[in-house]
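User: Could you go from structure to sequence for me? I need the amino acid at each position, not a summary. Structure tokens:
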């Protein structure tokens, strides 16, 4: 390697260490899971594993898709799964992507164009920010979940207007005021794009997401459903109109220029959806645990439990050193919780991010709350 490049890499890594936010990969075992996004336990569900194996055996496809969808990667099975997804979410069409990141990035970097304006909640995911950066459109951020600030941005916007929000925010765990946002989008002729990553599988009678639970499907230009969280598998889909799907097939570089996912991944998505409709007990237990945790935590004035009734419960512990020490103390007691550091969140908003799951027990939640209260 070039000596100058090696020096640059070392300097950047040292900067992370100096700022106390150096990241490294870790394997944590034999702890109670309060950190994964496996909200309703599908990732470890044996019945889902059996269903996927049976679906794979029933068909005889190659191990890999062998190419992009526009070359050799398409199949009747892929189109069947997309129709299934669209019907499940009460939409005209669906387009499957290899991940939620590429779905968000691909949509926002290809659809809004020069002279248009993307208006986004300041706490949207990094994939949305990256898509916006690679779009030719202008962009305006608005204060988190602030409908008045959103309206001001809509009044300033030029060209075609796109509003991008998450239904459930991954770091705060709070919900977007989707009804009010949808009403503003209708008033100002803006297209509403909702990332349902942390709502898919959790909200709605069939786990269809928060948009479906609120009967707002027709108010959305596009919704992004991610499968690596509550669904327990991998991949994502954009659900939208037939015309928008055709547009993405023609213009979305993140879709056009990548090898499509394997048949096994498609089968896993289909089987997860079939099981999702019957996971009401999982969701009911999950929401009971959320209420139990929130009612059991008692914090001093130094810490803040962010408001929200989602599986993501966050306690603000300001400062990278403080939040790391907080997390390490809980980990030493057998609870797998992780600190969220600056720059992932704003300085002063560092937090412990607790994820609850349907496979957690009431006793585990009460013990975690007790440990937090002592800290």
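Assistant: Here is the amino acid at each position, in order:
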């Amino acid at each position: 390697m070039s000596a100058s490049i090696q020096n640059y890499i070392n300097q950047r890594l040292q900067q992370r260490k100096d700022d106390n936010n150096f990241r490294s990969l870790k394997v944590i075992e034999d702890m109670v899971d309060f950190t994964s996004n496996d909200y309703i336990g599908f990732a470890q569900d044996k019945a889902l594993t059996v269903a996927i194996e049976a679906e794979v055996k029933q068909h005889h496809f190659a191990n890999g898709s062998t190419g992009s969808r526009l070359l050799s990667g398409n199949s009747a099975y892929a189109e069947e799964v997309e129709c299934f997804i669209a019907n499940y979410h009460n939409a005209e069409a669906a387009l499957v992507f290899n991940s939620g990141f590429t779905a968000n990035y691909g949509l926002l970097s290809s659809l809004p164009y020069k002279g248009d304006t993307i208006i986004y909640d300041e706490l949207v995911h990094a994939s949305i920010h990256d898509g916006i950066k690679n779009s030719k459109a202008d962009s305006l951020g608005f204060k988190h979940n602030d409908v008045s600030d959103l309206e001001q941005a809509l009044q300033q916007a030029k060209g075609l207007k796109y509003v991008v929000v998450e239904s459930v925010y991954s770091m705060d765990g709070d919900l977007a005021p989707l009804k009010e946002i949808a009403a503003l989008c209708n008033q100002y002729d803006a297209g509403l794009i909702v990332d349902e990553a942390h709502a898919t599988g959790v909200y709605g009678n069939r786990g269809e997401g928060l948009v479906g639970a609120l009967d707002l499907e027709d108010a959305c230009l596009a919704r992004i459903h991610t499968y690596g969280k509550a669904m327990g598998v991998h991949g994502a889909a954009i659900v939208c109109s037939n015309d928008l799907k055709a547009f993405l097939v023609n213009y979305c570089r993140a879709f056009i220029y990548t090898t499509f996912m394997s048949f096994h991944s498609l089968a896993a998505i289909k089987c997860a959806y079939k099981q999702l409709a019957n996971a009401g007990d999982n969701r009911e237990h999950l929401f009971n645990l959320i209420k139990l945790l929130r009612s059991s935590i008692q914090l001093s004035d130094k810490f803040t439990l962010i408001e929200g009734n989602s599986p993501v419960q966050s306690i603000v512990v300001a400062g990278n050193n403080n939040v790391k020490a907080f997390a390490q103390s809980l980990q030493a007691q057998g609870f797998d919780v992780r600190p969220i550091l600056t720059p992932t969140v704003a300085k002063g908003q560092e937090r412990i991010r607790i994820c609850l799951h349907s496979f957690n027990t009431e006793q585990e939640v009460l013990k975690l709350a007790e440990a937090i209260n002592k800290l």
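One structural detail worth keeping in mind: The two ends are 47 Å apart (CA to CA).
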